[in-house]
Amino acid sequence: MAQRIVFNRMEVAGSLGDLGTLLPIAIAMVVAHLLRWDKLSV
């Protein structure tokens, strides 16, 4: 038997929580890379 996929507000809250963790880390990695690249090119 196939189970129904449930997409409710708890799923949305969990995905937003994941984004709240992933987004700052991704932005910090990009900024750190850009700062390092600027220092290497001088």
What does this molecule look like?
The chain has 1 helix and no strands. The longest helix is centred in the middle third of the chain and has 33 residues. It is elongated and about 60 Å long. The chain is an all-alpha fold and 42 residues long. It starts with 8 loop residues before the first helix and ends with a helix.
Q: Can you give keywords for this protein?
A:
42 residues, 1 helix
Topology:
Elements: H1 9-41
Q: Class by helix and strand content?
A: mainly alpha
Radius of gyration: 19 Å
Average pLDDT score: 85
The count of DSSP E runs of length 2 or more, i.e. the number of strands, is 0
Q: Please outline the major beta sheet.
A: none
Q: Spans of 5+ residues with little confidence (pLDDT < 50)?
A: none
Order of helices and strands: H
Helix content: over 70%
The coarse overall form would be elongated
Task: Give the terminus-to-terminus CA distance.
Answer: 63 Å
Strand portion, in percent? under 5%
Please give the count of helices.
1
Task: Give a brief rundown of this model.
Helix content is 79%, strand content 0%. It has 42 residues and is mainly α.
